[in-house]
Amino acid sequence: MQITRFHIITQKIPTKYYPLLNELQLEAGKIWSDSLNLFFELFKQTGKAPKKSQIQKLVKSSLLHSQTTQAIQDRLFGALKSYFKNKKQNPSAKPPKPRKFYNLIWKNQAIRYKNGKILLPLSRKSGITLSIPLRKRKREYLEELLSSRAKIRQAEIVFKGFEYRLILLVKETVEISPPDRNKVVALDLGEIHPFVSFDGEEVLIWNGRLLRSYKQLRLKLIALKQKLLARKQKGSRRWKKIKRSLDRQIVKVGRKIEDLEHKLTRAFVKYCKAKGIGTVVIGKLKGIRERAKYGKNANQKIHLMWRFNKLLQKLGYKLENEGIVVVKEDESYTTQLCPKCGNRHKPKNRNYVCPACGFSYHRDGVGAINLFRRFMEKVSGSFNLPVDGLTRPRGVKYSPSSSGWVLPTLRNPLL
Ligand SMILES: [Zn+2]
User: Is the pLDDT of residue 378 over 60?
Assistant: First the structure.
């Protein structure tokens, strides 16, 4: 089976480039805003939406590479398209806004890699090519990928909090022997434990304490920033100083969260591969949203939800990279139903005990077991899941010394 894998390589750009990048991002913002304004102007004049090619002919840059300009306009038209689509259902939908700055984007052939450096050309007229050295580890990673037919598809320079970052998207086509789709694991995503998994044999609880504490810290910093800034005059020296300092901390914590989420999802994919799993069943996010809606701290919950999406994205592309299929399954009441007799009951403490049949299990595992059963019943008509002899859930711990989550020894790694 041939699959397409995407790899993302990202790193900080040396500070000597900052003045130039600032200027270029201003120019990119101008392209965005000029194209946007022209779009609505022509729309008003002719009564019909102008084509992208029309705008591209009229709004050009003498500084940016023509492909960079086009890529910005592509994104603008993407934003306009979703605006017009939304407007049909929601008349108060807002059109895209003009931007002061915009990300710099290069595509395919415009990007070159030579002697450890990424070369990103500006306009022919300017004669400038940005040459960004990659750090040793990133360089080795990229070279290994490029040596096996992979291609750099996109380079993007973003400004995050207080620094410029380069993001490379590398596409690779590989031949793999697909894993067995009939080997299934159900994954329950939660606020306390990021993952609880059940593969028909055992429940694993993926510890999320560290991840959770960083998420809480991030929210606290955001709240603190709002509180402190509200007391100062906007744009004043003090205001700027506070903003800069807190943005810096928020970005740092955000990066730590990203890193932990990558490590967690990487460990889960490793587990799937070791067990030969071909299908991962995930509860539909609908459930989380419902749970979030009734929470006492709505904002915090909404924020967590957004984080779930980011975690799912990371998990999704890593699983796809291995040819593992992700299936979404309705997760309503999965934490309340008895996995043995189907009776619905809200657990009161750490243990789920069914008043109807006496089945008892650690409550955190019940959601994943039910999710697994629901999926198996659907695909095989009837499904008999023996849940009486289940062993207690085991924890997958985070270990800082071994760079991530450590799997307990699998009962039979050859399975
Ligand atoms: Zn029961």
Answer: yes
**Interior/surface letters 324-342, b for 16+ CB within 10 angstroms, e for the rest:** beeeebebeebbbbbbbee
Output the CA 363–ligand 1 centroid distance in Å.
13
CATH 2.40.30 fits 180-211+245-406, yes or no: no
- How much distance in Å is there from the Cα of 380 to the middle of ligand 1? 22
Q: Can you tell me the mean pLDDT for 353-357?
A: 93
* pLDDT on residue 293: 45
Name the token pair of 90: 């929601």
What pLDDT was estimated at residue 399?
Answer: 82
How many angstroms is it from 372 CA to the middle of ligand 1?
A: 16
CA separation, residue 229 to residues 38, 45, 160, 224, 239 (Å): 36, 43, 19, 8, 6
Residue list, CB under 5 A from ion ligand 1? 338, 340-341, 343, 354, 356-357, 359
* Residue tagged 């904002």 (tokens): 299
Give the least confident one: 37-41, 118-122, 396-400: 396-400
CA distance 286 to 118: 42
Question: Where do the structural domains in the chain lie, given as residue ranges?
Answer: 2-175, 180-211+245-406
Q: How far is the CA of 232 from the centre of ligand 1 (A)?
A: 59
Non-local CB neighbours of 415 within 8 Å, separated by 6+ positions: 275, 276
